[in-house]
Please model this.
Amino acid sequence: MNKTFLFISAGLEAVPAILRAKELGLNVIATDADSNAPGFEYVDQKLIADTYNIEETVRVVKHYHTHICPIDGVLCVAADIPKTVSVVANTLGILGITEHSAFLVSDKLAMKQQFQKDQIPIPWFSEIDSFHSLEHQFQKKKFPLILKPVDSRGARGVLRLSKELDLKWAYEESLSHSPTNRVMLEAYLEGPQVSTESLVVDGQVFTPGFSDRNYEYLQRFSPFVIENGGDLPSYLSENIQTSVKQLIQHAAFSLGITNGVVKGDVVIHNSKPYIIELAGRLSGGYFCTHEIPLNTGVDFVGCAIRHALGEKISPSELTPEYQKPVVQRYLFPKPGKVIRVTGVAEVKAMPGIKMCEIRVAVGDTISKVHSHPARSGVILATAETSAQARLLAASAIDNIRIETT
Ligand SMILES: Nc1ncnc2c1ncn2[C@@H]1O[C@H](COP(=O)(O)OP(=O)(O)OP(=O)(O)O)[C@@H](O)[C@H]1O
Ligand SMILES: [Mg+2]
Model:
């Protein structure tokens, strides 16, 4: 009989992974609180359960596993719910990270404390337990600072501090995005930023995902930290790339992850890589499902699914075959009510455009962008050279007109 694979969360960005699992001939099931979740359209069985509610998800999944069909593997894509995935995997006795590792990747403070213990290079950090303590640190520290919720995602409440900023507002804003009401402060490290994605197979870390992050709009969206896509392959030297990959390996082991996916945020400060964070899940933003395969030929999601099923993955399957330029850019229309969207069909027809996803429709209200989920759409461009791919991406963004009043 076919093996059964479970995706926790059936959101839009999980759709390509669900389709990949179907192509692999699996019986595919998914959980989500929203019965209209986009991924549900493609699964063999949908299970309704809030992905953040561990108890509810475990109950629903266990019932399916015991009474309908045993589940052989589990993953989540573009949803930051490692604790739910870990508890499900451990309850069913299938491959997953430990609950302790899942806790460490969900709590930026605990993660940094663990990294500090293991001497993994990270920015200076401190827990902030009151506004007074924030004021005190802000006056004392001589380097740029960034304030963030301990346990949020999507850059919500992540703020670069400056003298011009109302510190009290920043504290309240950041705090409002922490489910446990905790914020922390870090040194803001200047330098190129990269996103990585790796599969850890029996203690061996393979990192075919390596993208230069684009922060050209840092000033425009200040104090929020909003990324405008990424460029692959990286322009960083081979030496730096190797040291980033070694750092990811140390960081994964520090968190106790010897099997599974790790998604890294890294900054290269004064030519040395520092870990900003490591997530224990498949990436969002179509990095794992589109950018890595387009850039390298590596079927990253296919490997992650098969690995989660306990299949052996050979190093060659995770080794890039080539380095084809891929450029990702986001849409940032003027805030207001959307009255017209044009140019999408033309952009989709441009040779080299591999994705053009518009996330707003006529009648929607676009607010100021304060986090990554608030971006209005995304395009992916490929070309023979990186310069051509960047030009194509820019032209695609220019041609999509989202008019607002
Ligand atoms: N100490 C730092 N130095 C430099 N840049 C930083 C630092 N902390 C955060 N950033 C930038 O801000 C981004 C968002 O911060 P962080 O990853 O901590 O929040 P998040 O909510 O997990 O965001 P996301 O889900 O997009 O990763 C980082 O990916 C990085 O680009
Ligand atoms: Mg992050």
